[in-house]
Amino acid sequence: MVAAFFFYFKYKFSEYKFVDFNKLTFYTKNDIFVPKKNEYYLLLFSSRMSNLKDLIKQIPKDYPILAVDIYQKRKNFKNIIYTTAGINTIIKLIQYLNIYEVPVVVKIKRYHKFLYKQDSPLKVLK
Question: Model's pTM, two decimal places?
């Protein structure tokens, strides 16, 4: 029983990915994003394809939403941490998290100072 629990835990731990904000730089309207909360919903979307107001209705409100716009518009949006990133950072994030469709949201949880661990499966929003 202990062995089964160990292998299940190891599988679950390796199934989800890490997001390292020391290696990935996101820009807000005026500054570089520095995570302060223990948990976020990470939303990857394109403002050219999707309306952010419609997308956030599908995301729970229990944690802050870190919205990464791959169209790279910098906006202020009430109650949302609206960010952009360089194309190389966006590509790394997409490849690392195995994202095949946008808009997509995933919950991330602080693991260590600037290192966050994926805490939910990827959810494609409609």
Answer: 0.86
